[in-house]
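Thread title: Can someone regenerate the structure for this chain?

I was given the following input by a collaborator and told the matching structure tokens would be attached. They weren't. Posting the sequence so someone can regenerate them.
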Amino acid sequence: MASVHTLTAGGPPGQETYNAVAHFAMPTGSNLVGVPWKTCYVASFQGRPITSQLKVVGNGAGQITQQELNQITSGDIIELPFTFGFDPGLTDAEKMTVIDGYAARSIDEFKSGFTQTFRYYGLTRP
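Best answer:
Regenerated them for you:
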């Protein structure tokens, strides 16, 4: 499973901003009232199906494997959109480090906000 899929770019040459998605495993554990994080995540879609921004199933560029798509739609893998850009003078290795950094920051910010939003989800008081 890929952790980052780069999708499209925009902006003038040398100053492009890229749209991408990061895929990461559903965190294990539960919120403060014992509701699994996966249950909270599925509930965040309010009855709408979980989908992927990658629309073509396959093994090529811009495609998603059926297994990966199944993991996303079931809530076992979270797909998170993010954007990035970098100085065109960087080496390819440096560019990969920048992409990984943007993906990691986006994932950390998502997890932090998500756990705050759903910390008491499912609490029922008599």
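The mean pLDDT is 93.
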